[in-house]
Amino acid sequence: MGIIVQKFGGTSVADPQKIHNVANAVIKEKKNGNDVIVVVSAMGHTTDYLIKLAKEVTQNPDSREMDMLLSTGEQVSIALLAMAIQQHGYKAISMNGQQVGIITENIHSKARIVDIKTDKLNKYLKEENIIVVAGFQGVTPDGEITTLGRGGSDTSAVAIAAALKADRCDIYTDVEGVYATDPRIVPNIKKTDVISYEEMLELARVGANVLHPRSVETAKQFNVPLRVRSSFNLDNLGTLIIGVENMEIYKPVAGVAADSSQVRILLSGLPDQPGTAAKVFGALAKNHISVDMIIQSLALNGTNSIAFTVDADDLNNTVNILNQVKNEINTNEILIDKNIAKVSIVGAGMVDRPGIAADMFRALAENNINIKMISTSEIKISCLVEKENANSAIKALCKEFGLESTETAVVKGDLPNL
Amino acid sequence: MGIIVQKFGGTSVADPQKIHNVANAVIKEKKNGNDVIVVVSAMGHTTDYLIKLAKEVTQNPDSREMDMLLSTGEQVSIALLAMAIQQHGYKAISMNGQQVGIITENIHSKARIVDIKTDKLNKYLKEENIIVVAGFQGVTPDGEITTLGRGGSDTSAVAIAAALKADRCDIYTDVEGVYATDPRIVPNIKKTDVISYEEMLELARVGANVLHPRSVETAKQFNVPLRVRSSFNLDNLGTLIIGVENMEIYKPVAGVAADSSQVRILLSGLPDQPGTAAKVFGALAKNHISVDMIIQSLALNGTNSIAFTVDADDLNNTVNILNQVKNEINTNEILIDKNIAKVSIVGAGMVDRPGIAADMFRALAENNINIKMISTSEIKISCLVEKENANSAIKALCKEFGLESTETAVVKGDLPNL
User: Do the chains contact at A16 and B56, CB–CB below 8 Å?
Assistant: First the structure.
């Protein structure tokens, strides 16, 4: 008995039959004696359809109006799912972001949640309702409709779980759980039974598309146990994502992932004086552009160069901003490299085992894969390689670190009621 | 210079091209120096599509969830129309019913508006925005989404015009204005230039589908000048609907209309004692069933019979309720007649001209049309006839009362700035 938050994506609610399947999964959890809140995305290709419609009206739709438009997608899903649950004889009530009180910043198309009101949720749960909440959307304190951007529905679910101090947040998806790498690239990879937030975060950040990092970060921050599980196989418990402090055994390398969505930008010939990096990254931050890898190096002639990567979608904006600060920072050229992929190994156990980085570089070298840029953190080592080498790098690294026959991690102590 | 509220129906915003046409009509009014609020319905067949989707999920969708579902239709329209207006270089902002504060009763699928907040509307108007408001929807004081039922978007527009003390409310539609009867039945009928609320109300009530009576009632109550005009011909001013006190000349019969959507119910063999009618109509009112014509008559044997008409959609509910009170009122039978149409003549001048009723009955008799039931009011006479006689009755009455060559009514005094 506890509070379970479930989240189903657009594919899971793509048509009335699938909506009934979701209703069954929801009711199964309710029958276990739990209070259930279910968060859903827009049906199937609804969001794409709405975006297409907007583009037919104007090539440059206003982001406030896009949020007004797109938020209708989830509202359709919640109404239909509530109806389906009621049809099976259970009490259900749908709530959009405004009705719940999913309060966000006043930024459109990628707002962050700042608060979730729980009074109505608790009231409806007390009345034995299954609550169906629209994911991906929120509302500003002024009543403006916002959307949360990529990974928004997962984040909605985790944030609601955190606000209600839920026992678990189950993210239903079309895969069986989390894998050490993409099974389409390494078919004999094993499903991971338990992984830490930190590892999952790094895997998500570098391109394991199962969960968006925002949702994992929120789960980590509020210590919400997450399960990634299959909506097609309700008996499979998927992968549990918990705090590293609850795990006894972890492998040095828990996963390998690649991210081909970035571009590398190189600013060269910069004068070696303080404040240059601050100017560049300050201007980018002010425009909400996330920078990933950053390397600064001093050349023999006394000038600096700064290389960094951004999401390819942000390239045009980035170049515009760099052109604005170009004179201020005295760069003599801005070079763009689109032919990159970031390949990373991730593992909470890395810090205890020396030589992991050397093993990684050697494995890549043995496969004739050239490294363009390296960055490391406590639980991650990333190498920039040429795009066409990404898959062979993943295969080489999975083999190098024995991920093709991963053993199940062991979980210690009192886990929440799973 | 003033405040103009415009309303466009679903056909007018059925696709991106049509949405741009609406944007042009809106901007035309803005260019005249007016503050403009535009109320729109859901695009084309969106509402039908959503209803179909709900029916695929469950045969008996909950009305709260239906409102949650259907209200998305208008929200899509307002976002797209705001984008289109912006694309033409004008400031625009969309608002759903919740955001405006269109406060309704806590009844789903046919809520009535109880209040409209004007603070945000006035704020956005002051900032030179064209405001695009979702019609058909509102919100209860508790934040529950409601819809207004039939004629809802027209009612939204008129109610907003009333709340803002607008100079005029223009209802754009696919006809050129109001006709004395349906032009599909009497092709040489003339468009009416000016008509009173009262006449329009009676015409609407008896089946002239141009405007729903709720919207005309609201306009009358708050003295909002209404224009019914064509969205395809912006130069045609359509029909102005104003208070009868502002009209100098009106014809005895302003219009003829028929309504085939009702059924007649006959309760016979009722004991002649007080309270029977109160019981019957009290029970129906309690269940929100509107009764139209009512006739009670005493038979020779001392028993009463009551005949009345209700909307065909309400027939099943009505019969259920009658069965519940059957023993209490001692009726010996409930007869249902579905083969009826109500044909009415309407005119504010009727009261000054005796013999109009006799002329109506004679005209019907000369055309071999049998009258099943008659009811009269100050500005209307209605006859129930067999359904198949409805059209010939309309033709006969238009001829009888000279409506095929209607002269334009003359308007006296100071009209609002039109």
Answer: yes
The span from the CA of A192 to the CA of A408, in Å, is 7
Q: Are A80 and B16 in contact (CB < 8 Å)?
A: no
More confident residue, B186 or A368: A368
Please say whether the beta carbons of A383 and A343 come within 8 A: yes
Nearest neighbour of A57 by CB, restricted to B69, B75, B80? B80
Cβ-defined contact of A75 to B72 (cutoff 8 Å)? yes
- Quote the domain boundaries for residue B205: 3-246
Helix A46-57 vs helix A63-87: angle between axes, to the nearest 10 degrees? 150
| Furthest C-alpha separation in chain B | 77
Quick one: DSSP state of residue B128?
T
Q: What is the chain B residue with the closest CA to A50?
A: B76
Residues in chain A: 418
Residue B31 lies in a domain: yes
B397: part of which helix (H) or strand (E)? helix B390-400
In angstroms, the separation between the Cα of residue B58 and the nearest Cα of chain A is 6
Q: Which residue in A has a C-alpha nearest to residue B88's C-alpha?
A: A58
> Above pLDDT 90, what percent of chain B?
61
pLDDT tens digits, B341-386: 999 999 887 877 778 888 999 999 999 999 988 888 888 899 999 9
Query: How many Cβ atoms sit within 10 Å of the Cβ of residue A66?
Result: 18
> Is a pLDDT exceeding 50 seen at residue B407?
no
Q: pLDDT (tens digit, 9 = 90+) per residue, A314-327?
A: 999 999 999 988 88
- Indicate the pLDDT class of residue A408, thresholds 50, 70 and 90: very low
Instruction: Centre a 10 Å sphere on the Cβ of residue B328 and count the other Cβ atoms it contains.
Output: 12
- Measured between beta carbons, which residues in chain B are less than 8 angstroms from residue A60? 87
The length of chain B in residues reads 418
Edge-to-edge, what's the strand order for the sheet holding B113-116? Answer: B113-116, B102-104, B137-139, B145-147
With respect to residue A166, please indicate whether it lies within any of the assigned structural domains: yes
**Which residues of A fall within a CB distance of 8 Å from B133?**
none
Contact B194, B247 (CB under 8 A): yes
Q: How many domains does chain A have?
A: 1
User: Which residue, among B15, B416, B379, B397, has the nearest Cα to B182 in the 3D structure?
Assistant: B397
pTM for this entry = 0.78
**Candidates B20, B65, B144; nearest CB to A83:** B65
Q: Which of A24, A51, A62, A65 should be substituted to probe chain B, the one whose Cβ sees the most B Cβ atoms within 10 Å?
A: A65
CATH code of residue B99: 3.40.1160.10
Do A82 and B76 lie within an 8 Å CB cutoff?
no
Q: Identify whether A96 is part of a domain.
A: yes
- Has residue B55 been placed in a domain? yes
Q: How far is B228 from chain A (nearest CA, A)?
A: 27
